[in-house]
């Protein structure tokens, strides 16, 4: 497949409206602060606040190191900017930088469980900025400077490093340099080049660019072979205009004056400048097998499609997440600070940065194990031109990079709390990562690689239209909206939604040429169940669930999503009138409960009211199969209020019976029960039953009945802070998902994506 086709296929897009809606919906912005201690009783108040709080105050006054034990300091990083170089958008001011800084803060949390707050300082005066930050040291374990223009950023970072005793790290400089260096090491290896003889051009001579070339030179890259360019062209020795001391340090003796001249015959070009800075002719003039890192955000110096149109021998990377090879500092800052915080480092030094580079470069060369493959684009990546660097969702990053950084900090004497057992530390780190990212990433990427036609049965609803557009825009396939023309158009017009776009189809049941075929099909199924032909005609003409389910059954769509306007059970009955279970399967609902560091699947949350022992065994089998399809190796616990026979009771008997039935079926997954939820989910509690056959805590929970399934998942969601996806329908002969009544557009897209995923052969 030509590279440009591949890039088109992989690239996703979001509309400007979607980006605004995403930020505005619910609580505006992307962050909130949540307490970590209960504040429920008079006693809590006495401990958290006066008088109890005085005790840690005195302890910290006596020994400042204990602030790490008694306050948030040890896991708290400030993301600080003045908005003078926001991405590649330029100087748009402190306030406009806030969405990016909130974004960096949530990435800290999402990827490395580092708590973070954004601070926008409204001054372009270097001294004022330094003074605003220097006194904030007691509040934080680290300072991540962001999007401050060069050369101010060099002075600011240097002075704050001298003034503060916690890590001060300018992400655009060092974060970018670390990732670019790791990608470069791998790209050089793949093209048979080395640090000595490779000729590199760097376009941009600001924060990111200067740090990148300083780091690679520090790692051994031949300085004579590096040409730096800025808006005025090549930075040559003696250039009079647009210079500063940081540029001068990298000025070279050369007759070349323009970027185009510099790039002629170059092996590598790093873009840390602005959208569109590289032309086709420049790329054409580069050496064979050129390495092109177009890292400007949000739009690169040249797109992978444009490069692919010119030449097929390039290794291409951008700063964006929707192309292969994302060279972006998101791969670095969460993990570098994780490691630095965990050893209470006083700074982030060169050894720690180089350790991060090597760790990242090495990870891309390793085989991708099964449980990690899920984070990649449907297919398992292999070290090569389209995979020179891990993706941000790679779950190995959290256990690899912080360990390397912490180790380097200890070796260079900046660790104030060394870690003795680094293996145990690596294991702890894995548990800090929220698994939802890898799960959903895998699902979306698989569908993107196999786009589907999904019918959205309730097409007249505004949130369904928005979901359909998001589905199509994300490259998941074609969204078919079912609805009557007039109300559909009226709702779209009122909501300002334009449905006339690629990837969206509208089908009106009354006008469809397929009505007769659907009616005949439905009548063949229902004629012995008391339905007349005219009843079936009415169902097809007027009921969108029946019409849509028949579309899927008769091959006019691959999958269906419904549920926002009806009760779950009503929608399910409608669908089941048209679609049978998969042969040999039982239809059940599985909910995914995602809590920090852990995912559990709960079944049956949708169909069986009070299952028999036989049905419970079926549910266990269906749920285990579903777990595998999502990349989890199932450990199934059949739950009850009792554990292995105590206390005795009739309800637990059914679960015990189900375990015996599974024994006779010789299934190929781990299961045991009956047991309480505490035993299933807590390794120490499980140890009290050494005969328990599960090799670890359960990740699939079979509930004794629908009420306990529903109550427990809803409690997890409301009280436990879990994200719950589902119920996801499993076992139907065609792929249908039912969203919950009143679901928002993002929930509906998720359900549509799951429906499409299940339709992928
Ligand atoms: N992928 C990633 O992880 C990251 C990417 N970046 C991207 O790098 C770019 C620069 O960011 P940063 O270093 O923080 O910003 P700075 O403001 O510090 O530096 C910008 C530099 O780019 C130069 N420049 C701007 N336009 C052009 C052009 N058309 N041709 C040549 N040089 C140009 C400027 O030249 P002059 O000195 O003459 O004004 C300046 O040297 C941005 O697009 C940003 O998004 C940054 C950090 C991380
Ligand atoms: C990624 C980043 O930090 C930037 O583009 O500025
Ligand atoms: Mg930045």
UniProtKB/TrEMBL annotation:
Residue ranges occupied by any Malic enzyme N-terminal domain in the UniProt entry: 28-161
Top-tier EC class: oxidoreductase
Residues covered by the Malic enzyme NAD-binding domain: 173-410
GO molecular function: malate dehydrogenase (decarboxylating) (NADP+) activity
The keyword rRNA processing is annotated on this UniProt entry: no
InterPro entries registered for this protein in UniProt: Aminoacid_DH-like_N_sf, Malate_Decarboxylase, Malic_enzyme_CS, Malic_N_dom, Malic_N_dom_sf, Malic_NAD-bd, Malic_NAD-bd_bact_type, ME_PTA
PANTHER family referenced in this protein's UniProt entry, alphabetically: NADP-DEPENDENT MALIC ENZYME
Protein's UniProt name: NADP-dependent malic enzyme
């Amino acid at each position: 497949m030509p590279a440009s086709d591949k890039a088109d296929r992989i690239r996703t897009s979001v509309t400007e409206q979607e980006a605004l809606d995403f930020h505005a919906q619910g609580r505006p912005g992307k962050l909130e602060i949540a307490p970590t201690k209960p504040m429920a009783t008079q006693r809590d108040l006495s401990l958290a606040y006066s008088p109890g709080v005085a005790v840690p105050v005195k302890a910290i006054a006596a020994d400042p190191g204990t602030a790490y034990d008694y306050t948030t300091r040890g896991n708290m990083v400030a993301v600080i900017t003045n908005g003078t170089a926001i991405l590649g958008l330029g100087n748009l001011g402190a306030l406009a930088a806030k969405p990016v800084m909130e974004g960096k803060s949530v990435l800290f949390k999402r990827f490395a469980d580092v708590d973070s707050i954004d601070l926008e300082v409204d001054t372009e005066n270097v001294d004022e900025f330094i003074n605003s930050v220097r006194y904030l040291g007691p509040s934080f374990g680290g300072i991540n400077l962001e999007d401050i223009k060069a050369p101010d950023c060099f002075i600011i970072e240097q002075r704050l490093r001298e003034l503060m005793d916690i890590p001060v790290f300018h992400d655009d400089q060092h974060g970018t340099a670390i990732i670019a260096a790791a990608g470069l090491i791998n790209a050089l290896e793949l093209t048979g080049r080395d640090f000595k003889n490779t000729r590199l051009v760097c376009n941009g001579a600001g924060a990111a660019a200067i740090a990148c070339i300083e780091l690679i030179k520090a790692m051994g890259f031949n300085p004579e072979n590096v040409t730096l360019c800025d808006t005025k062209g090549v930075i040559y020795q003696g250039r009079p205009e647009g210079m500063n001391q940081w540029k001068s340090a990298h000025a070279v003796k050369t007759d070349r004056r323009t970027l185009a001249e510099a790039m002629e015959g170059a092996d590598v070009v790093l873009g840390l400048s602005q959208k569109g800075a590289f032309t086709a002719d420049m790329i054409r003039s580069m050496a064979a097998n050129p390495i092109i890192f177009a890292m400007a955000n949000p739009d690169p110096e040249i797109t992978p499609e444009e490069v692919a149109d010119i030449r097929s021998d390039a290794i291409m990377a951008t700063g964006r997440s929707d192309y292969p090879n994302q060279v972006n500092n998101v791969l670095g800052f969460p993990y570098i600070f994780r490691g630095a915080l965990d050893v209470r480092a006083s700074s982030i030094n060169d050894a720690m940065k180089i350790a991060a580079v090597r760790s990242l470069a090495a990870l891309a060369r390793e085989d991708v194990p099964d449980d990690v493959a899920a984070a990649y684009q449907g297919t398992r990546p292999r070290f090569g031109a389209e995979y020179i660097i891990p993706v941000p969702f790679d779950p190995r990053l959290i256990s690899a990079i912080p360990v390397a950084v912490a180790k380097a900090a200890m070796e260079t004497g900046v660790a104030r709390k060394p870690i003795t057992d680094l293996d145990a530390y690596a294991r702890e780190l894995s548990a800090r990562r929220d698994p939802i990212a890898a799960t959903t990433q895998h699902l979306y990427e698989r569908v993107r690689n196999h786009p589907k036609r999904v019918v959205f049965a309730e097409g007249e609803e505004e949130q369904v239209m928005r979901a359909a557009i998001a589905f199509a825009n994300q490259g998941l396939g074609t969204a078919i909206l079912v609805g009557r023309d007039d109300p559909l158009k009226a709702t779209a017009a009122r909501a300002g939604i334009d449905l006339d776009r690629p990837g969206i189809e509208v089908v009106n049941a009354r006008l469809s040429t397929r009505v007769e075929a659907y009616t005949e099909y439905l009548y063949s199924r229902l004629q012995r169940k008391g339905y007349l032909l005219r009843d079936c005609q009415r169902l097809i003409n007027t009921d969108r669930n029946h019409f849509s389910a028949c579309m899927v059954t008769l091959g006019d769509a691959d999958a269906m999503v419904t549920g926002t306007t009806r009760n779950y059970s009503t929608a399910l009955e409608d669908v089941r009138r048209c679609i049978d279970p998969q042969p040999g399967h039982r239809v059940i609902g599985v909910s995914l409960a995602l809590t920090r560091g852990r995912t559990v699947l709960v079944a049956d949350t949708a169909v069986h009211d009070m299952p028999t022992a036989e049905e419970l065994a079926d549910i266990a089998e269906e749920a285990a199969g579903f777990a595998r399809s999502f990349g989890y190796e199932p450990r199934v616990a059949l739950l009850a209020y009792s554990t292995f026979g105590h206390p005795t009771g009739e309800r637990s008997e059914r679960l015990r019976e189900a375990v015996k039935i599974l024994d006779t079926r010789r299934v190929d997954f781990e299961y045991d029960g009956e047991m309480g939820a505490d035993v299933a989910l807590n390794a120490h509690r499980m140890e009290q039953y050494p005969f328990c056959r599960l090799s670890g805590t359960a990740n699939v929970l079979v509930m004794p009945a629908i009420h306990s399934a529903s109550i427990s998942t809803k409690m997890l969601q409301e009280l436990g802070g879990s994200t719950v996806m589902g119920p996801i329908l499993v076992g139907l002969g065609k792929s249908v998902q039912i969203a919950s009544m009143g679901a928002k557009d993002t929930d509906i897209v998720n359900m549509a994506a799951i429906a499409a995923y299940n339709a992928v052969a």
